[in-house]
Write a structure and sequence with these properties.
This protein has about 250 residues and is α/β, with parallel strands linked by helices. The protein is built from 9 helices and 9 strands.
């Protein structure tokens, strides 16, 4: 079984579309775990009402807001699948054979722990902004992953056993917790990105503040220092992160 885990917070307008894109997959041996992180709107009710008759969809609501990483960890601890798939509550998958392709790959390549694919960025009207693919093979991903997050979170499928060995998402990394997890998983097994587009990613119009961006650049440097001995390109990644961080003070 594949367990598809979706944390959600105030996304009743979008989360139904995300779930429908999962249910449209050709691979049917799935469960969908929706983790409502104490949304003040009626996201929980909207999802419950829509999917109450579908036993594959399981929705949980936290009594208090846990935050993104801890909510994900809680959802995956509930999951029964051999593989964990991720989709964010405001994204939706673009390829109905996505899961089938990734499961077949992981089943036939036992030394791999994580697969992903490309992304199509869209606005709130589903109009395409741009699309991109990421490094495909393990050797190329390893050369780049210290400098850049080489996996789109909503395309990722990974082994639950490896996730547990990696001790899950690090809550100290906030929204960069996925990048930290990939770096841990890479110590356990190999990486692969399909040269195909697997998800639509909703690009929100609001700008990221310099202070938030600065925190992200600091995280880059922390990850670089923590994992530099496991991956090539330490100095490139370190100086790139430092340059971004310093640049954030200029505007």
């Amino acid at each position: 079984m594949v367990s598809v885990v979706t944390p959600t917070y105030n996304r009743k307008k979008y989360v139904i579309k995300a779930i429908d894109s999962v249910l449209s997959q050709t691979y049917k041996n799935i469960e969908i775990i929706i983790m409502d992180d104490c949304s003040p709107d009626d996201t929980f009710k909207v999802v419950s009402d829509r999917f109450s008759q579908d036993l594959r969809v399981k929705i949980f609501k936290n009594e208090t807001n846990l935050g993104f990483p801890e909510n994900l960890n809680k959802g995956i601890s509930i999951a029964q699948g051999k593989y964990i798939a991720r989709i964010d509550d405001d994204d939706f998958w673009s390829d109905n054979e996505k899961l089938e392709k990734q499961v077949n790959f992981l089943d036939s390549h036992q030394d791999y722990v994580l697969t992903g694919g490309g992304s199509i960025w869209v606005n709130e009207n589903d109009k395409e902004i741009f699309k991109f693919l990421l490094p495909e093979k393990d050797e190329y991903i390893r050369k780049r992953i210290l400098s850049d997050n080489c996996f789109v979170h909503s395309t990722a499928v990974f082994k639950k056993e490896a996730f547990e060995l990696a001790k899950g998402y690090d809550k100290k990394l906030g929204t960069d917790c996925d990048w930290g997890l990939w770096l841990e998983l890479g110590k356990i097994g190999k990486f692969y990105n399909f040269p195909e587009y697997f998800t639509y990613y909703l690009k929100w119009p609001q700008n990221v503040s310099n202070s938030v961006a600065r925190d992200g650049y600091k995280t880059r440097i922390k990850l670089c220092n923590k994992y530099g001995r496991y991956y090539p390109g330490y100095w490139t990644a370190f100086f790139l992160g430092g340059a971004y961080y310093l640049h954030s003070f200029l505007f």
